[in-house]
Write a structure and sequence with these properties.
The chain is of the alpha/beta class. Helices cover 47% and strands 17% of the residues.
Length: 264
């Protein structure tokens, strides 16, 4: 019987499990879910300690906004080494989301700005409600992205759009974000969690090797030179097709017992 219900309420993060899906809710609405040292540590700890039966994670924000980014009140004077280590701490957390155990779906509403956009960019699928908007106010604050934004955001929306956001303070609404490539699914206000859980259910039924290949092999293949990428792809394909889950699924299809590809 899979665990269901609230697993833990840390100071700033609520963790709920429903079957194979874990729901992490940033729970600092009074500060618009701004990420301070405590919250980044709690997010990281949650991802490093996913229950063994969890097959997908949904991340959302409590209140009117997904996340206002770095808690600027903690952006105190740091020497260069301390500032680098602070940024590297965010990198570790967001790397463990992107290259973790299971796919992660972000539900975006209200402000998705600065470090909030960096968090969203480290997830695998982004569901945006009508109210969502995307910004990188670092440019206006005289700072730079430090949570992996310069690596992940251009890979979603392109370098030119990110330059525009940082240099001019340009903000994209949900539709613009979708057209730019930052949004996987666009839904009405209030419909984001249902959509995310429906997607998570589909993901939870995939063969585990599929999640592994898509999360760990695909992004690396994309970064490889084509001839290496093609070779890595062949290795990954051979490994995946030799798993018992793949053999069962292929046999089920050939026996007419598996779903066909249908237009949605
Ligand atoms: C905060 C933060 C924050 C809100 N750090 N305290 N991020 C930003 O530059 C975005 C800054 N925030 C905003 O532009 C707005 O707060 C929002 C558009 C997100 C929301 O506006 P609103 O009108 O709903 O809320 P508010 O009244 O501005 O904020 C409510 C409270 O949250 C208020 O505190 P209070 O004690 O006066 O009630 C705000 O000060 C507080 N608050 N956002 C600290 N970010 C790893 S590098 C990443 C670098 C970055 O992310 S830089 C971008 C930072």
């Amino acid at each position: 019987q899979p665990a269901t219900g609230v697993l833990a309420t840390l100071d700033l993060l609520q963790i709920t499990q429903a079957g194979k899906v874990l729901h992490l809710r940033l729970n600092r609405p009074a500060k618009r879910n701004a990420i301070n040292d405590t919250l980044i540590a709690q997010i990281h700890t949650a991802f490093l300690n996913l229950p063994a039966d969890v097959r997908a994670v949904v991340v959302s924000g409590e209140g009117d906004h997904f996340c206002a980014g770095l808690d600027l009140s903690e952006l105190v004077q740091r020497d260069v080494a301390a500032a680098v280590l602070h940024s590297r701490g965010w990198h570790k957390c967001f790397d463990d989301i992107q290259f973790g155990k299971v796919p992660v779906i972000a539900v975006l509403h209200g402000a998705v700005v600065g470090g909030g956009l960096e968090l969203a960019a480290s997830c695998h699928i982004r569901v945006a409600e009508d109210s969502a908007y995307f910004g990188l106010p670092e440019g206006q604050r005289g700072i730079f992205v430090g949570g992996g934004g310069s690596v992940r955001v251009p890979r979603l929306i392109g370098t030119a759009r990110m330059m525009d956001m940082m240099l001019t303070g340009r903000v994209f609404d949900a539709d613009e974000g979708e057209r730019a490539g930052a949004v996987s699914y666009r839904v009405k206000d209030g419909a984001g969690l249902d959509k995310a859980f429906a997607l998570a259910e589909k993901i939870a039924h995939n063969a585990p090797m599929t999640a592994f290949a898509v999360m760990h092999a695909l992004p690396r293949i994309v970064e490889q030179a084509p001839s290496e990428g093609l070779f890595t792809e062949s290795l990954m394909a051979a490994v995946a097709s030799n798993t018992p889950e793949a053999q069962e699924r292929l046999a089920a299809f050939l026996a007419g017992k598996a779903g066909k590809v249908v237009k949605q």
